[in-house]
Amino acid sequence: MTSGPILEAHDLVKNFDDFAAVKGISFAIDRGESFGFLGPNGAGKTSTMRMISAVSQPTSGTLSILGLDPRDHGPTIRGRLGVVPQEDTLELELSVRLNLEMFGRYFDIPRRTLRERTDELLEFAQLTERANDKVDDLSGGMKRRLTIARALINQPELLILDEPTTGLDPQARHLLWERLYRLKREGVTLVITTHYMDEAEQLCDRLVVMDHGDIVAEGPPRELIARHSTREVVELRFDVETHDEIGLPLSHFAQRIEVLPDRILLYVDQGDDTLRDLHGAGIVPASALVRRSSLEDVFLRLTGRTLVD
Amino acid sequence: MASGTGVHSPAWLRSWHYHATFYAQTWRGSVASNVLFPIFFLASFGVGVGHMVARHTGLVQGQTYLHYIAPSLLATTTMQLGEGESLWPVLAALKWIRSYHAAAATPLEPEDIVYGKLTWVVTRAFATGIFYTIVIGAFGALQSWWALTLPFVGALVALAFSAPLVAYAARCQSDGSFIAIYRFAFVPMFLFSATFFPVSSYPGYLRPIVQVMPLYHGVALARAAAYGHVAPDALVGHVAVLAGLAAVGIYLGRRTMRRRLVD
């Protein structure tokens, strides 16, 4: 095993014709870490994933994956990676088991080893009972688990997951998260993209926030929240057409406020104190909620996205 | 690293293996029609229509009508096999099922995916060629030991069509043009490549058009093999046209597949 980061990028750029998808980002991911790329659609996450999967080549910048340069060692690197693409790319007409075995052959895994690993992975994905069913008959959550199991067929050191739970119901998401924790405990390095803030908070030791092809913040989720947001947030709703007019007087009660179309966010340290102050000043919202700051707030702060002008 | 043993198969062969395994799982649905088609075809056109031809025209280029069309059936079938494997299946693997994208995330390179596909098409066409040679033989249409080369002719014809079509499909975003290609390229080729009547029955100004059709050269090769009419000059020309198409297709296919999968 090599020491140092398992993945390292400097000034990584990806252009498609005139469009700059990734505009010179740098990051380093340590072995065993679980690292997130957070950002809205079009932020450059998928282009970044394709580069660090050693599939697409950077337009410029340097990239080292498992200590190797993907320009020269693409097949070797890919042989040691697992990739879970955004869309399941399973053979729907074939059985669950065959999907695993046929994929394993791409890695030149001997048949006997492959059969054993397939059994283990079926167990891991909780699909043992569905092993001989057509993939077409599986639920969305089962297909996603199968895609993850398939990505593990070569026992990768690094697993890259592009929006692993998009489109899944809450129950399926939690089951999937639990499987990913298990992998993390086994020492697999996880790289995850998501636009779900709760997912990033749950799964990632450290993350970067991307916007318009750039990294706008980097750090552990808690630290990012501490750095870019307050401890608590008071969400207020008033019984009005638009929240624009009421915004201003409220800014005396908080360090910062965000006025959204449907509610106003007050960034404060002690939400309950703030509520009391508001009541004291005769301000009575239709509803009020005190919660902890989340990455959602960090994101709002950094990108200004979803804000009303 | 991944396998942990010293056994290594080349990457293109792993792609071939994927196609072969897939086919092994799904062939049963089509086997009856594939087996019965040439028998029915030769019985109806060869024997049935052949009866009328014999009454009105007599022999066609020294052959009974059955013996005249039997070798061309091998060429048209392997052409269709090459087409059928190449347009929709490739677009599906790139756009709908995205199985080529899955493969591109493994040690396989886009070129391996192209080679795996084409070697699989060649394998299928060769096997089909063996079966058709037997059927054609059963109808008494084989007249030379050169007929043993018919499966190779079938494989070459399939590759000559498959390679350019794979290259083309790899750059398509939809299947909108595929139907038009069938209607305006393959159906006319199937009908007018001296498949069912000789090129001498066309007016002189149409003959060059017939002779540039790739299938014309496949049909000519199949007839030469079946009858043992081996004229080296002509054969080299026919082989060159088909091999040239295959080579151009492979060259373009490597590029379009790479651009599509890894850009």
- Contiguous low-pLDDT stretches of chain B (5 residues minimum) are 1-5
CATH A-level architecture of the largest domain in chain A: 3-Layer(aba) Sandwich
Order of strands across the main sheet of chain A? 5-6-7-3-8-9
Overall morphology of chain B: globular
Total helices of chain B: the number is 11
- Helical proportion of chain A? 25-40%
Helicity level of chain B: over 70%
User: What does the overall shape of chain A look like?
Assistant: globular
Pair with the most extensive interface? A-B, 34 and 32 residues
H/E topology pattern of chain B: HHHHHHHHHHH
Query: What's the average pLDDT of chain A?
Result: 90
N-to-C series of helices and strands of chain A: EEEHEHEHHHEHEHEEHEHEEHEH
Name the beta content range of chain B. under 5%
Mean pLDDT of chain B: 92
Number of strands of chain A: 13
**Uncertain regions spanning at least 5 consecutive residues of chain A:** none
- Counting structural domains of chain B, the number is 1
